[in-house]
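Recap from last week: sequence in, structure out.
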Amino acid sequence: MDLGFTFLLVANGILIGLMYALIALGFVLVYKATDAINFAQGEFVMAPGIVAAVVAGAANSFWLGAAVAVAAMIGFSFLLERTVLRPLLGRPVIAVIMATIGLAAILRGTLPMLFGTSPLPLALPLGDEPIEVGSLTLQPAQVAGAAVALSALVIFTWFFRSNRGGVAMRAMADDQQAASAMGVNVTRYFAFAWAMAGVVSALGGVMWGAMLGVDVQLALVGLKVFPVVILGGLDSIGGAVLGGLIVGVVENLAAGYIDPLVGGGTKDFAPYVLMVAALLIRPYGMFGTRRIERV
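Predicted structure tokens:
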């Protein structure tokens, strides 16, 4: 085994894993505040990526495209919460889940109609020159994406642990009626949770779009993140980080060592093997809250 090659695969897997963790953070934010899973997370990543690419191409400014994408997702999230999700407050969680599944189908069909299906370029203003760190050769987009992801994860960890708003959102996820009785403005924090998920999705869409290019297939990143949140735990930011790192490293090692032996494809399903194993052994994830119900 070539240790240098292995080290390179692990290093790249860590960078990719942090970017997975950024998308997984969108799942965690919504789940911690609403106790529901956003099955439109992949489309939440695709939409701002397309907006950023269109604006950046028209204005010849990556930063303007990224800013417009973030602002558009904040506005869209507030609008979505006000018109679709707020009427579902107090309803069974399955109602919110089905609403997000329908939203995913709408976004996946509408955006290609508006902007076309051809891939759109979205280049970071960092150049294409690889970054040399000792014997490692790293891609600028991966390094930038990992830095953005790590910053967002630190900020939201602090928010949920130390900020009154974060504590209120956690209480709301546990029991909306009890939180409301204690003075928590449930509708406001419900909207705030979706807006934060929109910001995270916009950052993820821009960074993944810069690395892969932007088209409707960018929504598949959301599906790749399911093993991350299952491994780490749906309500744990730390679990999203660790799950992302594990999935990123396993995926890269599978691509480097197993794909050449079997003709490829193992990196695509290896994370799901981990997910199934996690569901069998620890279904609430490594850091997820174990819920015990007495009947």
